[in-house]
Structure formats: structure tokens, C-alpha cells
């Protein structure tokens, strides 16, 4: 039954997966192609023929978990944007406070100068000034006194104008301070609300995952479920391999043993280690990492898949050329879309536990012509 199903699914997707994976220039058929891709992934996620009767209940729960994963992914992005906005507003607020302090000092200095000018002007006005003029016998001295008095008066007017301008700037800065503080308070409230919603969503997802675990799945059921999860991934990878990649994988091959870990963390499950009562093996490595840790591409390439796949949660697949692919599963947030070119070390996702995992981290695989390879042999472990 599985082989005929795979054949039907492959026939549905052969034409359009290749074009999407290559990241070709969009044409009028792009929307239809994207829709077909979504439909195929939906079939892989939910087609009844994949499941036994006992697993149909799990299917409903996993559908709920997928919705929670999508909501959490969106909220994580909103929290990140809001946090960045807060940092920007705090920086602006700091600059405005410094500007206001500088204007206040300037205002005080100008006020002292004005006071001195007014005092000096008072001494040079009225009878005192007239007496000094009448007592001068030198025309040159008299002329200097007249010019000085005019300049003194003009300088005083300039000081008053500067003082007025400073007061206006200070008032404007105070208004901006009030506005930024209000914006800061608003964004802080938004962030608290988003974080509360995110916490509630995570709690709900944990409840759903716990419900799955409490189902007391037998070893046989676990074995069969893992096989079906693996078959879904293999079907997807088979479809992705049908495209003709324009990438040259020679640089990726040359970098073997020098690639960076996709995320910093402890390897919980090594490649080839047993699972499902020792009847199956891990085809990649499971890396423990705190929720939201940046997940980076281990080498430059093109994103050929970025979506939610049952058994792997949110999954990104990067094509490095020459039939080499790397897979990054169970992440919480996808930062890249199909067709995006990525560089070595570029952030492509955030670590998480989508797809029904209990503990956060990243599932990482290296594939050559569809065959899994031990990622540790490609990673720089020095």
C-alpha cells in the first residue's frame, strides 16, 4: 500500500517541486505551484492511508499541535520585533534625556549672561552714560564709546534671541520625551501581553504533548509510527531530488570536518543510536538547545523546503549542490522561505520543540543522494 501511495504522491509533485526547489524566477504559475506544494505537504501530514486506526486519535492531536506551533512561531516573531522596538525607543529616550539636560545647562548659562548684560547695560544708561560722554575730551574715545554701546545693545538682543530659541528647543524636546515615553510604555505593555499569550500557548502545547505521551503507546505502535514519520520524510526528499540543482557541491564536500554546529548544545541522540526498542536507528543527531536559540545553516546553499511536516515539526531543508542536503527539524520559527539563498552561519530558524517534542532543540541530518550520513563527520568538533 505504501509503495502505490508514494508513487501517486510523487506523480502529483514531480513537476512543481523541482521549480520551487531551484528558486527559479517567478512566473504567472508561481501561485498555483506554491498551492500545489502546500497540498502535497498537507497530504504527507494528514493522509488517512498513512495511519492505523489507533493513530487517528494522535492525528487529531497533532493537528492541534501544528496549529499551536504556527501560533507560537508567529508570536515569537512578534516578541522579537517588539523587543527590537523597545531597544530602539530606549536609545531614543536616552538621547532625548541627554539633549534636554544639555539644553537646561545652556539655558542656565544664557540666563547668567543675560543678567550680566542687563546689569552692565543699566550702568551705561541714563545720566551715568551721559556724564561719561560729556567728560570725554577725545573724539576718538567718544566714538569708541558710542560704537561699543550700540554693539553691546545688539549683543544683548542676540543673547535674548538665543535664549528664546533654547527655551523653544527645550519645550520641543520635552514633548518628544513625553511621546517616546508613552510609546515605550505602550510597546512594553504589548510585549508583556505577547509574552503572556506565548506562555499560554506553550502551556497548551505542553498539555497536548503530554496527552500524546499519556496514550501509553506500545513499542510496536511507536515503531510503526516512527516508520511512517520516516516514510513521509523519505517521500519528500525523493520529490526534492527530482529537480536539477544548479549548485556546485564541491565546496561543501571540501568543507567536510570543518562545518559549524547548526546550534550550540549537547547532542542528546547520536547518529545511529537505537530508538523504538532497538529496532530503528537515528538518521541524524538530536541537539539540546534553549528555546529560541539561533539555528544557522552549516554551509551556503538554497532553501528547498520550509514548512511543517508531521514527525519533524517546522523543518528547513537546504540544498548544497551535488545531491547534498542538510535538514533542520523541530524548530519553533522559520526565518527563510523556499528559494532563499543562505550563507554559512546565517540564521535560518530558532530552536524549539515543534511537532510534539517535549524538550527544545534541533534535529539535524546530512543527506547524500537521499542517504543519511553521520553529521558528526562533517562538523568541526575541535
Account of the 3D structure:
The structure is a single chain. With 382 residues, this protein is α+β, with helices and mostly antiparallel strands. It has two domains: 2-50 and 222-377, Glucose Permease (Domain IIA) (Distorted Sandwich); 51-216, Helix Hairpins (Orthogonal Bundle), CATH 1.10.287. Helices cover 58% and strands 15% of the residues. It is built from seven helices and 13 strands. Strands 1, 4, 6, 7, 8, 10, 12 and 13 form an eight-stranded antiparallel sheet that branches. The protein has a three-stranded antiparallel sheet with strand order 5-11-9. A two-stranded antiparallel ribbon has the order 2-3. Helix 1 (2-22) packs antiparallel against helix 2 (30-46). The chain is elongated, with a radius of gyration of 35 Å. Mean pLDDT is 75; it is low at 1-26.
Amino acid at each position: 500500500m505504501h509503495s502505490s501511495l508514494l508513487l501517486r504522491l510523487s506523480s502529483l509533485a514531480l513537476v512543481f517541486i523541482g521549480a520551487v526547489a531551484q528558486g527559479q524566477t517567478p512566473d504567472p504559475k508561481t501561485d498555483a505551484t506554491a498551492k500545489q506544494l502546500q497540498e502535497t505537504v498537507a497530504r504527507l501530514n494528514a493522509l488517512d492511508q498513512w495511519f492505523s486506526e489507533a493513530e487517528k486519535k494522535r492525528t487529531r492531536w497533532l493537528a492541534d499541535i501544528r496549529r499551536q506551533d504556527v501560533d507560537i512561531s508567529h508570536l515569537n516573531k512578534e516578541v522579537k520585533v517588539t523587543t527590537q522596538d523597545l531597544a530602539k525607543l530606549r536609545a531614543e529616550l536616552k538621547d532625548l534625556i541627554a539633549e534636554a539636560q544639555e539644553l537646561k545647562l545652556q539655558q542656565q548659562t544664557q540666563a547668567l549672561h543675560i543678567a550680566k548684560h542687563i546689569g552692565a547695560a543699566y550702568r551705561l544708561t541714563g545720566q551715568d552714560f551721559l556724564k561719561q560722554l560729556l567728560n570725554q575730551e577725545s573724539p576718538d574715545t567718544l566714538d569708541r564709546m558710542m560704537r561699543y554701546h550700540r554693539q553691546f545693545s545688539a549683543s544683548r538682543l542676540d543673547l535674548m534671541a538665543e535664549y528664546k530659541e533654547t527655551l523653544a528647543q527645550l519645550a520641543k524636546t520635552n514633548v518628544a520625551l513625553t511621546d517616546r515615553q508613552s510609546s515605550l510604555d505602550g510597546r512594553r505593555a504589548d510585549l508583556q501581553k505577547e509574552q503572556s499569550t506565548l506562555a499560554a500557548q506553550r502551556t497548551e502545547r505542553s498539555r497536548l504533548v503530554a496527552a500524546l505521551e499519556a496514550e501509553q503507546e506500545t513499542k510496536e505502535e511507536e515503531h510503526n509510527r516512527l516508520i511512517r514519520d520516516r516514510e513521509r520524510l523519505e517521500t519528500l526528499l525523493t520529490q526534492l531530488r527530482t529537480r536539477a540543482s544548479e549548485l556546485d557541491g564541491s565546496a561543501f564536500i571540501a568543507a567536510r570536518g570543518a562545518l559549524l554546529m547548526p546550534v550550540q548544545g549537547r547532542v542528546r541522540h547520536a547518529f545511529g543510536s537505537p530508538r523504538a526498542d532497538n529496532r530503528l536507528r537515528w538518521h541524524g543527531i538530536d541537539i539540546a538547545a534553549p528555546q529560541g536559540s539561533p539555528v544557522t545553516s552549516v554551509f551556503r546553499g538554497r532553501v528547498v523546503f520550509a514548512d511543517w511536516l508531521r514527525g519533524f515539526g517546522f523543518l528547513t531543508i537546504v540544498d548544497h549542490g551535488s545531491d547534498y542536503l542538510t535538514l533542520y527539524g523541530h524548530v519553533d520559527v522559520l526565518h527563510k522561505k523556499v528559494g532563499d539563498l543562505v550563507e554559512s552561519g546565517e540564521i535560518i530558524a530558532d530552536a524549539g520543540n515543534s511537532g510534539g517534542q517535549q524538550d527544545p532543540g534541533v534535529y539535524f541530518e546530512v543527506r547524500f543522494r537521499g542517504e543519511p550520513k553521520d553529521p558528526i563527520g562533517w562538523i568541526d568538533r575541535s
